[in-house]
Design a protein that fits this description.
Elements: H1 4-8, H2 10-15, E1 28-30, H3 32-38, E2 43-47, H4 59-72, E3 77-83, H5 87-98, E4 102-108, H6 114-125, E5 129-132, H7 136-149, E6 153-156, H8 163-181, E7 190-195, H9 199-211, E8 216-221, H10 230-247, E9 261-264, H11 277-290, H12 299-312, E10 321-325, H13 333-338
Parallel strand pairs: 2-10, 3-4, 3-6, 4-5, 7-8, 7-10, 8-9
Antiparallel strand pairs: 1-2
Helix pairs in contact: 3-11, 4-5, 4-8, 5-6, 8-9, 8-10, 9-10, 11-12
The structure holds pyridoxal-5'-phosphate.
Pyridoxal-5'-phosphate binds next to helix 5, strand 7 and helix 9.
Length: 362
């Protein structure tokens, strides 16, 4: 199996580690019911939630590059920092575990939701080492100490983001372009994606240029300024493009500026992981109309921004708009019922269950 990026740039395949983890291409589909509900019948979704039968979502694409890089460097452990309910940490734990690499999670507090509690139980079930800190400085001090003293650890930046892993989302747009060329969807005028650690969206920006798509990328800020900001996203897009060209000079020179991207700031809600009424309403509407499950930290806020944009933007004139779904949709509720619950967690994480928010565990 190869990927559209390597078919277009064979020299990159020789330069970049890559392993097949996911189900490609991920499906695209028209959101007909949701479109009817909001009065814009040209809404589409790219279903990266179905990127793996094991655990889907956006990290699968990144891990297809990261895991073989870690294996090549003979690393035995992944170490990563994230919110206590991190999807990225769980995805890393599951996929790296299957490749024989254990994940060490350095977690910091965030608002507690059902999804946060479920992820934490699954982290433990799938063998992550869970450590909880008061805040990021403390967690990053630990990272520095571990990396200095343990050469067999691989550092995964929060969200798995680096120019190297961002290449995976450049490939994702080449994949989308083939689906457009094959008549599966019209070329979107706008593409909406969540901006957590910026890797997904930066990759989409580079990919759109490389694929010759005229689509405009709109990122929705869902994390704190240090992770999720306008300048950083454009800069990461430029670094990714430079890295690709360095590895393969046949990749065209690309320069990205403020004109290539919009960052929607108004749906963040002031705190990473905070449930906002409009984010929750968007999650509920997607479930009711299309039966697709989102969550409130990333994809709910992103969909809320997209729906308001579509409703308030008359000049759209029925143009196609694409929602890039980055959340896993493999259902783990049966595993969670069996996994032993709160008592399996280390003491440092037990406070997360002061109140049980998982209805099927009550
Ligand atoms: C469900 C979901 N969507 C989007 C993102 C954001 O992606 P990125 O960190 O590449 O900006 C994340 C990051 O963890 C995520 O878990």
């Amino acid at each position: 199996m190869t990927i559209p990026l390597f078919e277009a740039y064979p020299a990159l395949e020789k330069q970049l580690p890559w392993m097949h983890l996911g189900n490609w291409p991920t499906p695209v589909q028209k959101l007909s019911n949701l479109g009817k509900a909001i009065g814009h019948e040209n809404l589409w979704i790219k279903r990266d939630d179905l990127s793996s039968d094991i655990y889907g979502g956006n990290k699968v694409r990144k891990l297809e590059f990261i895991i073989p890089d870690a294996l090549r460097k003979k690393k035995k452990y992944m170490i990563t920092v994230g919110g206590i309910g991190t999807n990225s940490g769980l995805s890393t734990t599951i996929h790296c575990g299957r490749a024989g690499i254990k994940t060490v999670l350095l977690l910091v507090p965030q608002p507690i939701t059902q999804n946060v509690q479920e992820n934490l139980l699954l982290d433990q079930y799938f063998g992550a080492e869970i450590n909880v800190f008061h805040g990021q400085p403390e967690a990053y001090l630990r990272v520095a100490w571990v990396l200095l003293t343990h050469p067999n650890f691989y550092l995964l930046w929060a969200g798995g983001t680096s120019p190297f892993s961002t290449i995976s989302y450049v490939n994702a747009v080449l994949e989308l372009k083939r689906q457009i060329d094959g008549g599966l969807l019209p070329a979107p005028k706008y593409i909406f994606s969540a901006v957590g650690s910026m890797g997904t969206t930066a990759g989409l920006i580079v990919g759109a240029r490389l694929a010759g798509l005229k689509s405009h990328n709109v990122g929705v800020k869902v994390s704190m300024d240090s992770y999720s900001n306008f300048k950083g996203t454009v800069s990461l897009a430029n670094k990714t493009a430079r890295l690709m060209r360095k590895l393969d000079p046949s990749v065209p020179e690309m320069k990205f500026t403020a004109a290539d991207f919009d960052l929607e700031l108004n749906y963040y809600g002031g705190e990473y992981g905070r449930v906002t009424p409009e984010g929750k309403a968007a999650v509920d509407l997607m479930k009711e109309t299309e039966g697709i499950k989102l969550e409130t930290t990333y994809t709910g806020k992103t969909l809320a921004a997209m729906l308001d944009f579509v409703k308030n933007n008359r000049s759209l004139n029925g143009a196609p708009v694409l929602f890039w779904n980055t959340h896993n949709s493999v259902d783990y509720s049966e595993t969670i019922k069996r996994c032993g619950g709160l008592k399996t967690l280390p003491e440092c994480a037990q406070w997360v269950f002061k109140e049980n928010l998982i209805p099927y565990l009550k």
